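Table S4 entry, SDR family oxidoreductase.
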Amino acid sequence: MTQSPRSILVTGGARGIGRAIVEEFLAQGHKVAAASTSGKAPEGALGIACDVADAASVDAAFKAAEEAHGPVEVAVANAGITKDTLILRMSEADFDAVLDVNLKGAFNVAKRASKSMLRARHGRIIFIGSVVGLYGSPGQVNYAASKSGLVGIARSLTRELGGRNITANVVAPGFIDTEMTAVLPEDTVAGYKAAIPAGRLGGPAEVAAAVAFLASDAAGYISGAVLPVDGGLGMGH
Ligand code: NDP
């Protein structure tokens, strides 16, 4: 590690991409809290049960991380869900549930993180968006809306907090091999593979590497960016 250990909080750190992010930061020697519904976490991380859609629960998670590791210096809003269906079948509840976790959850995390980052005059906020936020995807009106909303949050935060040495960026994964995508029908997966210039799905560790870069001292002048990790699927964002 080329920088001092940071206090880092990752939401959705129990599984998939979030877990890979936690493992990458642990491998770099950082102090990592992983907040998720279950509270499970890789060995070496502090596991915290949390519902990101609930501001009080997010506040409690930050307090637990702060008690164990000090003020959070890097916050990764990764927790996310899907409730896919075509618009005529999409209920208001399907729309609200996805927006509550993916968008309001990220707002709750960013708001709570900003508090101590403003005091410290240093901070890194990283949102896990998606290629579909700007590319669009049939059956994902709710999900795509939640993910494109993160770009607006990151860019507004960049304008609000940029002068205080706080950066806010979006990492936009394409099709990554996790439990979220394991439920998709084979022909959907085959269709995606055909459309991805790299010709394969990505791995969670490939997303984690991009997140770790944006959290590093080397990325101090990058803010308001959308960094795709998608094998070329969404070029042109
Ligand atoms: P998974 O379904 O594998 O894991 C999701 C994680 O989020 C779990 O740890 C889960 O907790 C947690 N979580 C879900 N709801 C909440 C909540 N309300 N409060 C706290 N934690 C919650 O997803 P992925 O790893 O695939 O996805 C991670 C992120 O990456 C998501 O934001 C997703 O939209 C995004 N993404 C994924 C892509 C992919 O292809 N997989 C592509 C593009 C973006 P628990 O383990 O306790 O259930």
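The longest helix spans residues 92-120.
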